[in-house]
Amino acid sequence: MTGPVIWDDKKKATSNKVTIDPITRLEGHGKIEIFLDDSGNVSRAYWQVPEVRGFERFCVGRKVVELNQITARLCGVCPGAHHMASTKAIDGCYNTKPTEAAFRIRDLFYHAHFVHSHIAHFYALAAPDFVCGPAAPAAERNVLGVVARVGLELGTAVVTARAQAQRIQAMIGGKATHPAMGVPGGVSKAINKEEIKEIQKYADNLVAFAETSLGVFKSVVLENKEYLDIITSSDLYYSELYSMGLVNSKNQLEFHDGKVRVVDQKGKEHDKYDPYDYLDHIAEGVEPWSYEKFPYLKKPGYKGMVAGIDSGMYRATPLGRLNVSESISTPKANAAFDEFKATFKSLGVEGPVHFNLATHWARIIEMLYGAEKVHQNAYDPNITDPNIKQKDIIPGGRGVGCVEAPRGTLTHEYSCDENGIVTACNLVVGTTNNNGPMNIDTMKIASALIKDNMISPGLLNMVEMAFRVYDPCNSCATHSLPGQMPIKAVIRNADGSLHDTVTKNL
User: Fold this and answer.
1) What is the pLDDT of residue 468?
2) Cβ 327 vs Cβ 343: under 8 Å
3) Neighbours of 106 (CB within 10 A)
4) In angstroms, rounded to a whole number, what is the distance separating the alpha carbons of residues 20 and 46?
5) What is the pLDDT of residues 369-416, one digit of tens each?
6) If we measure between CA atoms, which residue out of 30, 110, 77 comes closest to residue 402?
7) What are phi and psi of 329, to 5 degrees?
8) Which helix (H) or strand (E) holds 261?
9) pLDDT of 20-68, one tens digit each?
10) Which residue, 388, 336, 123, 80, is CA-closest to 218?
11) Which residue has the higher pLDDT, 72 or 136?
């Protein structure tokens, strides 16, 4: 396999603004606008979200028990994450916690969700940049192009593993895409013995598949010097940011429950807090050119789109989660984590890893961890316990639900009255956490690659790779109000000819 050709088919930009619209291989809508100075070099670049979705507003006045159904429909990519965070917030509003059996069932469901999401991102969204190359024709930079290069057998295994992870979610959650299992203090149904036998078979395969995926990443990326140079280039995909993620009591990687840990650029613990107190630790800034908010650490505060110790910008990604974790609680993933750390240590990295493209490697390690957690839960002798709901639940109060979504730390906060009606709602979504870093990286990479007005499709894809490592979900992340929805309607005659084009807010 040859390395990536970056400087393909270069030509002069025809104006001082280069727009990448739509940006590709993400969920939701967005664009990148790059402004050039009189010399043809980058003066400013923006990762922009030009639409608005008002979920935080129209949840107010609804029954709080409905919110884990409503917020799960933010998108079809991470509904399990929103359902889980929402259910935990509903627990708080009803002054309860799940039974032990219910927690275990939720845990099984949620790690299956993580596995299926990470499979989708790595193979369909990220792998084309590595397997096909950043400058491959756009028609080839997709999952079919990946399958053509890695072989039909692996492609079939990808589809099978993702389907099995979704099947687990459907068995527990009622549906594979928009689950309906969460109730205050529990889950809606128990797992029977026939179901758990089927889940155990899937769990065995998911662990094996995750190990295979790790091997694919090693052979395709880590053993290719040119690709490895792109990953470890401090001039491109490198940002020194704070890192955020959930950890357990041993500071080990955690997706479902735990405290939020933040480490600084050198790996020193900067903050650690219970999710219920999140407003004491983070806040959200706004900018006039995006409908997506900009979360930041209250200490050191908001300094705009800049990295470094004096800026409150932080990464909440698979890479961020590994940076805040001292180890991983499952053996296979922990061994992979040790190899990850040893590799970067050999490159002179002693603390957190700030090479952003290493996020893809971290995602595969997390896939293995999620599969091992599915396996542990599936073989837990108490997983079929029928005690799945708390009986004494009282509505009224504030609830905060926090999980690690595949895209970053996800927080749902609700307040409700004694009738269970929502009086306030706030969401800090995984992608929203990374809005500032995505802008920082877009500017940095565009500035490094675009010189003297010269651009190319491969070069612009390299700019898109800056945000793609974050696996952004703009449908989930766009909350700022007021805003407008851009619409373009093309009206055609019966014979297919153009009759009219109507636009609004474009």
Assistant:
1) 84
2) no
3) 26
4) 10
5) 999 999 999 999 999 999 999 998 999 999 999 999 999 999 999 999
6) 110
7) -75, -15
8) strand 259-263
9) 877 776 666 678 888 899 888 999 988 877 666 667 888 899 999 999 9
10) 336
11) 72
| 42 contacts 466 by C-beta, under 8 angstroms | no
Per-residue pLDDT, averaged over 422-431, amounts to 92
Residue 25, pLDDT score: 66
- The whole-angstrom separation of Cα 100 and Cα 97 is 9
Question: How far, in Å, are 167, 219, 233, 257 from residue 250 at the CA level?
Answer: 32, 33, 33, 13
Are 409 and 257 a contacting pair, CB within 8 Å?
no
Match 């974050």 to its residue by tokens.
Answer: 470
What is the C-alpha to C-alpha distance for residues 64 and 334, in angstroms, rounded to an integer?
38
Count of positions (residues) in the chain: 506
Half-sphere exposure of 215 (CA within 13 A, CB side): 8
In one-letter notation, the amino acid at residue 244 is M
3-state secondary structure of 18: strand
In contact, 50 and 29? CB cutoff 8 Å: yes
Burial class (CB in 10 A: 0-12, 13-18, 19+), 482: exposed
Q: How confident is the model at residue 481 (pLDDT cuts 50, 70, 90)?
A: very low
DSSP letter string, 436-469: HHHHHHHHHHHHHH-BTTEE-HHHHHHHHHHHHT
CA distance 258 to 474: 26
Locus of tokens 């994450």: 81
pLDDT band at 190 (very low <50, low <70, confident <90, very high): very high
- Structural tokens at position 57: 């507003």
Give 332-392 as a 3 state SS string.
HHHHHHHHHHHHHHHCCCCCCCCECCHHHHHHHHHHHHHHHHHHHHHCCCCCCCCCCECCC
pLDDT at 490: 67
The residues with which 244 forms a beta bridge, in sequence order, are 262
346 alpha-carbon distance from chain centroid: 28
Backbone torsions φ then ψ of 283, nearest 5 degrees: -140, 175
One-letter amino acid at 66 equals: E
Q: Answer for the pair 320, 407: CB distance below 8 angstroms, yes or no.
A: no
Q: Taking a C-beta distance cutoff of 8 angstroms, is the pair 473, 75 a contact?
A: yes
Which is nearest to 196 in space by CA: 375, 21, 344? 375
Contact assessment for residue 445 and residue 463, using Cβ atoms and an 8 Å cutoff: yes
Question: Residue 158 belongs to what H/E stretch?
Answer: helix 152-173
Counting beta carbons within 10 angstroms of the beta carbon of residue 120, is it exposed (0 to 12), middle (13 to 18) or buried (19 or more)?
buried
Phi-psi region of 251 (alpha: psi -120 to 50; beta: other; left: phi over 0): left
* Best CA proximity match to 239, nearest among 444, 465, 455, 449: 444
Give the gyration radius of the chain's Cα atoms.
23
* pLDDT tens per residue across span 111-128: 999 999 999 888 887 878
The first and second tokens of residue 87, run together, are 């259910």
- Contact criterion met (CB below 8 Å) for 454 and 11: yes
